[in-house]
Amino acid sequence: MPGAGRAAGVRRLGPQPSEEPPAQEEDQDLLLAAAYVSDAQYNRNVPFETSPRAIRLYYFYNHWTMQVAIYFFICVDLSLALFEVPALFPLPFLATSIAEVLCLTAFFGRLVHFAKVTPQMVFWKDTKNICIMVTIVIRRTFRSIRNTLPDILYVFLLFVFSVLIFSLMALKLFGDRGLQTVEGSPYFTNILEIAFELYVLVTTANSPDVMMPAYNFSWWYSLYFITYIIINTYIFMSVFLAVVYNNYRKHLKNEIRKLAYLKRHKMIEAFNILKVKVGTEFVVMEARWKQLARIVMPHISGPHLELLLRISDEGQKGHVDKMNFIRLADLLNIQVVTINIKRHPLEDWMPRVYQSSASLLVQRMVRHRIFVWVYDVIILINAIFIALDEKNPFISYAEWLFLSLYIIEILLKLYTYEPRAYFGRKQFWNWFDTLIIIAALVATVANTTIQSARKYNSQQILDIVLILRILRLLRIIVSIQRFRLIVTTLINIGPTILTFGGLVLVVYYVFAIIGMEAFHGKVQFFDPNFTTPNALVCGNPALKDSAFARDRYCKNNFNDLASSFIVLMELTVVNQWHVLAGGFALVTHQAAKLYFIGFHVVVVILIVNIFIAFILEAFFVAYSLEKSEVETAIEKKIQELGVGIQEEEMQDGKLVDNMDAKDSGFSGDDGDNKRKALKGLYFRIASKKYRTVDALLQQMFESEIAPEDEGPSLDEILNFSPGDVYPKNPNFENSA
């Protein structure tokens, strides 16, 4: 966001004469307070003016439609490289020019909009506003890289020094021996070639080829390469990861600490706007609190709002004190799912049949854990049959049997559980399972029909059938708790993985544009059946007898954006990347290798290591954190009101059936009769898997701040550095 790193909405304008009636002034105060709470809820750091017009513009600036629109124009602007020369899908120059002008207009309009809501001094002092539209997707990740660079630079310089020292040693050891490579070229006679080959050896892409001439000459020379690999590949690369991880964790801690205190500062600002004095303390009245919550979250339901008010005003005094008001942003952030308990339709349509002893026996069987275990075993047996020969008639008939068993399972579950609950919005695995089975049934019937016609065999449909059968094995993940934990963690880190993906996309895009400018048309792809001399050298005589041409790497070129991205992906994997670099160096200049080395340093050494550091931190946090104090308070109040459903009861198809009579507010001896009586609204905390890693870390830090602690001053918050310790939080220091 523009102005990231500065206080959000901290600049209050001095008292100004106003002709507005008191009611309108109260509405403006409410809107301003809601802006502060909303910023605290979403951790926004955008400074804004507090005049009525600026506040309305600020609300519009943060509206989801504006966010979607700007992301759309960013995608369009980046995709223009697909249609401009060199183009994958050529379009007229006028069309791409008009599209680019529209995108630039949108970016400029967004910048002007931001200038209208933020103080002018803040806007012009923030140099990021010049390029904010390009970096909006990757700002957090880019900041992590920027913070990590100074420390990793010293390690990188030491690494380069080590490579150069070994290069000089190699020149003196092998330069005058008259050794030759397999291609017949002189071996290690040029210091620049030696440095490049040794740098490639760090990635192991040319091992053991690079040492074979020396090793064939003398066994003792292998000790040189072994020593080099131990020092530079294993020690230095491990040190790179350690330095990146340590700095990433240090700066992440500082970011989270700053966000936590800014959030508290905004909530205190909102409280000071709405507070009134009752007795000896300042409070926010219940009516104002409700109005504020509805402005911040317009679509909140009445029961949900009432639940949050019960938590904030435990004594039912008609007002909310300062400590409970500060928790409002956290309360709104926690997803409380409202559940409307309804009976099964069959219970209304044919109650005698559905409540008969045979029907109840079937329902008890389906709800029992053994039912899940039986189908787990069926899935494992099915996996064995999938691996066997498809042409065997017995295997073909067995697949029909397995498919029938899966259909029976879904029908039994739909008979036992209320269909709308079974296919609820959060019941991902139920949807996945049903869609896979239906698709497999349709594809299998289609394939069988085609084969029975004996006219032709559709390999495409057969491939779909085989893939759908394999996807059915993913059902095992639902049944094993440890698998679920891993999947939950992956979902937690999903948003940030996408952020890193955006960063990699932009880096790829930049290197692709540079690559197309430098290497476009230098390498040509010909059909594999072509045997002309020009085709054998990828359309460039400079590649004659090169490893690039021998390996038929002609399609690895920079002739369009899509091909460039594929080449960059191959470079990221690092296998054979020296062959690609050598080929493009032959068709241009040896200095072209610097392009490939630069890409390796930026992507493989820097970005990939930061990504690994993030994955490590994410798993540590996901495995160590429990529920927050606010979540615990919500769950406690839900249970006190007798309207609670536990998370476990929403999994494995249990849904509402395992509710305890005491918790649900209903009593009765017979569990099935109890189910018949369940009506009305119930609540539960949404699954933990939807909490992001940043939120979990912030929760950990906030748990260490005393409720009455208002934190440091605003200037101190904005000037936090990773070395500051305020307050001393041992748990957070150790974990983040």
UniProtKB/TrEMBL annotation:
Domain of life: Eukaryota
Gene Ontology molecular function, alphabetical: monoatomic ion channel activity
Domain named Ion transport: residues: 139-250, 368-624
Pfam families named in the record: Ion_trans (PF00520)
Transmembrane segments: 64-83, 89-109, 152-175, 225-248, 370-388, 394-416, 428-448, 460-478, 490-511, 565-587, 594-623
GO cellular component, one term: membrane
UniProt membrane topology term: Multi-pass membrane protein
Biased segments, Low complexity type: 1-17
Residue ranges, annotated region (Disordered): 1-24, 707-736
UniProt-annotated location(s): Membrane
UniProt keyword Coiled coil, yes or no: no
Name listed for the protein in its UniProt record: Two pore calcium channel protein 1
Organism: Ailuropoda melanoleuca (Giant panda)
UniProtKB keywords: Membrane, Transmembrane, Transmembrane helix
Cross-referenced InterPro entries: Ion_trans_dom, Volt_channel_dom_sf
